[in-house]
């Protein structure tokens, strides 16, 4: 099931969603078997920011009907320590590395893009735009003008594929997608988590330390299908589809709606090897049915 | 620091071999023929093979973390794992329904377990409620441990005391032993001059009382904490607890944490 994505050869179309698999921690827990049976065709890192971030105060999780809400807050070591400590370890994975980055200004994103542009270990960059631009106050990924401005600032800085990870919390996702394509995005990934909230049953106040969080899991699969279809109708660049994928059939469905690659997120929490199982199921399904974009 | 026992990669089936009721608690035994023997204090993520996310029921969806109560190797090189469960929510409710013939799905062993006591210190085990589980397997490996101190809410939970050898008891309702907190027993023991290293697991307020009691007397303590956890292997970053080194993930850097690393053991979101 070899597939090409932005010129990168992948053994199959299943990758991980950013922030849902820590390959370095998993290596400590599962040992070398993780590397021998690595479940994804490319590894997408957790979001890297310029400065280190501690993340949100706990509690950070809530189980919902058929899913969960997380309010993690993008904890990470910051660019400098990521380059020094994590990148060399991730470069030893048997698959191409996509690095996800986020900045609070266009200048910050530009610094991150320039830093990773110099690193041959990095096959592609994914821009997390689900955060406010602190200079304009706008959610970067919710507004076509913001996305255009961001890509105009960073597209000239690298020849590596730039994937824009769209937020579903936008009034017109297809318009944002078109803006990203016009401004030079190489690919788009969707959907990120959907904003949600949970109450502490004992107090009636918000349960999560960060007040609100992002919903993921099977409960968002129908939303992901609809948004992929809308975006696929609006752009010609390749799409990474994600949202509640638990089986090869779910991956096939997102591909039918326009995805070239499919990312597995929350299902890896339930089974760390879920990606490998889903890839196998997809391969078996594809033996009988041609994959739309495969 | 001892090397952690690594887990086989991925989720595997573990057929239930026996189900026992101990008052309000259920002990599930399952066969894990290919699995490694866990360290005391390590845990597994458990879910039921059927009716767990994807079936008719909306919850449970995520697996639940349980410290191993006992791990019994058999002559044939097979391993039997025991888990202690109290029905407190949709996940534990579903697990308590399972019987021999049903399958558990397990990932583990996970996390870092208990470390041996520092030189010349005698291990003293302190447990509360369903949190006694990791102390049972630890007691078996500690020939010179003093009598464990166990606390239970009421007579319905008291049968759990049988899972450890020769405990001293405290109960909230006075149905057995000292009426009051297990940490009252701990303070008495430490004040009597016992040169101890404390190992504790239980509800967050109990662990925080253990931490304070030990800290005031400069007695080292290893606390097995709990936190809401989606994955158990460091992926979700949901189970963090604040320490002197900032937030750490309980699943990969715990669940056993040296009390000196904590400013509080009463972690937000734990015991839910």
Q: Could you explain how this protein is built, in words?
A:
The complex is a heterodimer of chains A (294) and B (272). By secondary structure, chain A is of the alpha/beta class. In chain A, helix 5 (144-154) packs parallel to helix 6. Chain A is built from 10 helices and 14 strands. In chain A, strands 3-14-13-10-9-8-7-4 form an 8-stranded parallel sheet. Chain A has a 4-stranded antiparallel sheet with strand order 5-6-12-11, with no helix packed on it. In chain A, strands 1-2 form a two-stranded antiparallel ribbon. In chain A, strand 5 and strand 6 form a beta hairpin. Chain B has 272 residues and is an alpha/beta fold. In chain B, 15% of the residues lie in helices and 32% in strands. Chain B contains 5 helices and 15 strands. In chain B, the strands form 3 sheets. In chain B, strands 10-9-8-7-11-12-15 form a 7-stranded mixed sheet, with helices on both faces. In chain B, strands 1-2-5-4-3-6 form a 6-stranded antiparallel beta barrel. In chain B, helix 4 (204-216) links the parallel strand 11 and strand 12 (221-224). Chain B is globular and about 50 Å long. The two termini of chain B are 30 Å apart. The A-B interface holds A 19-22, 24-26, 28-31, 33-34, 37, 46, 54-55, 57-68, 70, 72, 75, 207, 209, 217-218, 246, 266, 268-274, 276 and B 4, 6-11, 47, 53-54, 58-63, 105, 107, 110, 227-231, 233-242, 246-247, 249, 252, 267-269, 272.
């Amino acid at each position: 099931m070899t597939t090409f994505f932005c010129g990168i050869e992948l053994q199959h179309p299943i990758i991980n969603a950013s922030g849902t698999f820590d390959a370095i921690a998993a290596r400590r827990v599962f040992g070398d078997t993780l590397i021998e049976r690595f479940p994804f065709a490319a590894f997408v890192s957790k979001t890297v920011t310029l400065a280190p971030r501690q993340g949100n105060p706990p509690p950070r999780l809530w189980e919902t009907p058929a899913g969960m809400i997380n309010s993690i807050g993008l904890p990470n070591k910051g660019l400098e320590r990521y380059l020094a400590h994590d990148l060399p370890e991730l470069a030893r994975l048997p698959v191409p590395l996509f690095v996800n980055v986020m900045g609070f200004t266009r200048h910050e994103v530009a610094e991150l893009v320039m830093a990773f542009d110099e690193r041959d270990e990095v096959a592609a960059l994914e821009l997390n735009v689900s955060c406010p631009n602190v200079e304009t106050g706008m959610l970067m990924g919710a507004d076509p003008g913001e996305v255009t401005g961001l890509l105009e600032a960073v597209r000239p800085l690298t020849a590596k594929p730039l994937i824009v990870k769209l937020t579903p919390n936008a009034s017109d996702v297809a318009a944002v997608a078109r803006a990203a394509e016009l401004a030079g995005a190489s690919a788009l990934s969707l959907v990120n988590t959907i904003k949600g909230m949970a109450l502490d049953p004992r107090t009636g106040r918000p349960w999560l330390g960060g007040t609100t969080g992002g919903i993921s899991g099977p409960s968002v699969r129908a939303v992901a299908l609809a948004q992929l279809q809308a975006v696929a109708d609006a752009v010609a660049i390749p799409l990474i589809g994600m949202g509640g994928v638990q089986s090869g059939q779910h991956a096939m469905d997102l591909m039918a709606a326009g995805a070239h690659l499919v990312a597995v997120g929350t299902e890896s929490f339930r089974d760390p090897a879920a990606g490998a199982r889903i890839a196998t199921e997809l391969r078996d399904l594809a033996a009988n049915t041609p994959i739309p974009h495969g | 620091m001892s090397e952690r026992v690594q887990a086989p990669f991925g989720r595997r089936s573990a057929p239930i071999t026996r189900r026992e009721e101990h008052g309000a608690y259920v002990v599930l035994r399952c066969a894990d023929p290919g699995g490694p023997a866990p360290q005391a204090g390590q845990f597994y993520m458990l879910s039921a093979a059927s009716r767990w996310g994807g079936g008719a029921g909306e919850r449970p969806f995520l697996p639940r973390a349980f410290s191993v109560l006992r791990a019994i190797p058999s002559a044939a090189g097979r391993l039997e794992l025991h888990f202690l469960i109290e029905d407190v929510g949709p996940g534990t409710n579903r697990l308590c329904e399972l019987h021999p013939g049903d399958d558990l799905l397990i990932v583990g062993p996970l996390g870092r377990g208990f470390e041996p006591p520092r030189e010349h210190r005698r291990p003293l085990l302190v447990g509360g409620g369903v949190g006694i589980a990791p102390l049972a397997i630890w007691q078996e490996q500690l020939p010179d441990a003093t009598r464990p101190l166990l606390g239970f809410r009421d007579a319905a939970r008291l049968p759990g005391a049988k899972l450890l050898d020769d405990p001293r008891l405290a109960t909230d309702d006075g149905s057995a032993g000292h009426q009051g907190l297990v940490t009252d027993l701990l303070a008495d023991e430490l004040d009597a001059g016992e040169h101890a290293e404390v190992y504790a697991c239980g509800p967050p307020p109990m662990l925080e009382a253990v931490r304070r009691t030990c800290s005031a007397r400069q007695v080292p303590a290893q606390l097995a904490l709990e936190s809401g956890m989606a994955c158990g292997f460091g992926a979700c970053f949901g189970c963090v607890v604040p320490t002197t080194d900032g937030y750490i993930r309980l699943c990969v850097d715990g669940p056993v944490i040296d009390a000196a690393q904590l400013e509080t053991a009463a972690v937000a979101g734990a015991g839910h």
